[in-house]
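Consider the tokenized backbone below.
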């Protein structure tokens, strides 16, 4: 893939596919190719390269960007129940973007394009922010024109917020020389999953369920949080809990991540951004038990004065509590180290090549076991969800009487 010549781009095992090298190449000598999992990699045209080394100076892996060392840790969620319920966890990403837009700025977030590729885009109005809600559990990318437009807007004196995966934040930070007009937020990320098998899986399910057109795909938030759900005009057409869907299972089991995710240079407590946002996995449940907790809550780490100032500005829109940083580190492994590459990954990739993706996962013993358990729990949760409130109250009363 990466051609061996005088200029050697980032090692293929560490390249995140961010695209900064292509952006800064004045000779247009860098283009992209795709590997077997659909991840893009830069290639250099030796005939065009003049060896100016701009690509090496701006590559956030070869020439690392400045990291932020201090962190104040918060547990937080949006006060607005609708936002909290429909967002991935606490809705803090959405609240931050909305605040910036309401104050005349722009937001950069991840949306589905018409083919359900996850792409970062610039958003100027609060209505369009609906599109960034929820996590798209596939590796997203920053289109070339988004890099350009962010730069042009900042040069014109506009301000904004960028929310993306840590490697994307590093890319933007390097490309813009850490421009002060843009607040940088990274999501804690344990890995970007294969765009190729994501696409294949969508087509497979559409075919199987005879869905002609899809309007949305969700992984997080709302009534089917932590399930994959396919939607057409507000009607759900397919829904499975994470471990009972071949693709979501691959994401949760880390098997189809980009190679660089297993060596991620950003998976540590020192962060690349002004604000880090995540799910608060390690929260002490006794602390949260008496609090309204609709659909999970965010872990928020503030690293810089710029992050702190913005946090103060959204204070009346959110509920938040300062927590010990050690609690966050304990609960979220990617604050310590990158995700470990599963031992069976190479074997699985071989099987996928031979048998096809769906068959290879469907016949995997681990998938079979986990999906059975997941379906059982899912049915139980659905029954509880649809049981009328008066019956639930009655059952609790009977239980209390029999104690
Ligand atoms: C690939 C991936 C892996 C993750 N791994 C972890 C993890 O290991 N531990 C953990 O605690 N949290 C992880 N997260 C973050 C978590 O899923 C939530 O996104 C985060 O808690 C924000 O919640 P929220 O309620 O503030 O989001 P919302 O208010 O619902 O907003 C969602 C935000 O996520 C952004 N986003 C969604 N999908 C992508 C994507 N593919 N690429 C870039 N940006 C995206 C949107 O632009 C938006 O800003 C991961 C997210 C992704 C996308």
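A designed sequence for it:
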């Amino acid at each position: 893939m990466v051609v061996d010549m005088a200029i050697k781009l980032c090692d293929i095992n560490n390249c995140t596919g961010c695209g900064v090298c292509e952006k800064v190449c004045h000779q247009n000598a860098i283009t992209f190719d795709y590997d077997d999992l659909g991840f893009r990699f830069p290639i250099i045209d030796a005939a065009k390269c003049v060896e100016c080394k701009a690509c090496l100076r701006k590559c956030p892996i070869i020439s690392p960007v400045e990291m932020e060392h201090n962190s104040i840790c918060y547990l937080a969620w949006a006060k607005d129940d609708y936002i909290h319920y429909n967002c991935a966890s606490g809705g803090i990403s959405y609240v931050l973007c909305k605040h910036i837009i309401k104050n005349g700025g722009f937001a950069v977030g991840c949306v589905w394009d018409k083919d359900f590729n996850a792409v970062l885009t610039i958003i100027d109005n609060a209505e369009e922010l609906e599109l960034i809600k929820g996590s798209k559990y596939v590796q997203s990318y920053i289109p070339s024109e988004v890099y350009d437009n962010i730069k042009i807007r900042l040069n014109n004196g506009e301000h904004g917020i960028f929310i993306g995966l840590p490697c994307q934040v590093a890319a933007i930070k390097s490309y813009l020389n850490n421009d002060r007009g843009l607040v940088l937020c990274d999501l804690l990320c344990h890995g970007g999953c294969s765009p190729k098998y994501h696409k294949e899986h969508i087509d497979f399910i559409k075919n199987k369920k005879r869905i002609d057109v899809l309007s949305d795909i969700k992984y997080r938030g709302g009534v089917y949080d932590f399930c994959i759900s396919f939607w057409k005009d507000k009607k759900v057409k397919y829904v499975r809990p994470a471990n009972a869907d071949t693709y979501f299972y691959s994401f949760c089991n880390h098997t189809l991540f980009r190679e660089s995710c297993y060596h991620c240079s950003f998976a540590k407590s020192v962060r690349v951004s002004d604000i880090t946002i995540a799910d608060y996995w390690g929260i002490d449940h006794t602390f949260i038990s008496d609090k309204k907790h609709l659909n999970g809550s965010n872990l928020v780490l503030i690293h810089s004065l710029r992050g702190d100032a913005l946090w103060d500005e959204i204070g009346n829109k959110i509920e938040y509590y300062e927590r010990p940083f050690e609690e966050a580190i304990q609960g979220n492994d990617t604050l310590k180290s990158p995700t470990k590459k599963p031992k069976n990954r190479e074997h699985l990739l071989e099987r996928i090549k031979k048998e096809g993706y769906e068959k290879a996962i469907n016949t995997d013993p681990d998938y079979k076991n986990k999906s059975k358990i997941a379906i059982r729990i899912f049915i139980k949760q659905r029954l509880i969800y649809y049981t009328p409130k008066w019956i639930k109250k009655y059952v609790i009363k009977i239980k209390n009487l029999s104690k």
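DSSP finds 15 helices and 13 strands in the chain.
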